[in-house]
């Protein structure tokens, strides 16, 4: 067996280290790019998720809206107040920072119907124009017309941004 000795005739290892260094640098760049993409996607999903809740929150608020309900009863609307509902009523009361549409549809068999659509603006037809998307929530309600006449109806709230 031959013993190795120290020698000054060795070759510097710089050229062997360059490819390894390149692999390490590229790996770090890919890792941090993936990390950034993950957090960007996560924050966008959380923003859309909290925005989706806005439709449900506005719907819950409208189901108990004192200027719409009959004698303050939850989800029982006064038909005369439904036909007088305006966008400014909702905007003044709830101050939404997004576009909305409230659609009350009378589903009864009575000849007189009390339908109402109130919108803060037109919903864009191009889905890519929406920053956070479009979300809707609906619930059944009763429309009080008189003590002997009650209509079945639905309320649908659509929000977009």
Quick one: CATH class?
Alpha Beta
Major sheet size, sense and barrel closure = 5 strands, mixed
User: Which architecture name does CATH use?
Assistant: 2-Layer Sandwich
Write down the secondary-structure element order: HEHHEEEE
Tally of domains? 1
General description of the model:
The protein is of the alpha+beta class. The chain has a single domain (29-160), classed as 2-Layer Sandwich (Ribosomal protein S3 C-terminal domain), CATH 3.30.1140. Helix content is 39%, strand content 25%. The protein has three helices and five strands, in the order αβααββββ. Strands 1-4-5-2-3 form a five-stranded mixed β-sheet. The termini are far apart. The model has no long low-confidence stretch (mean pLDDT 83).
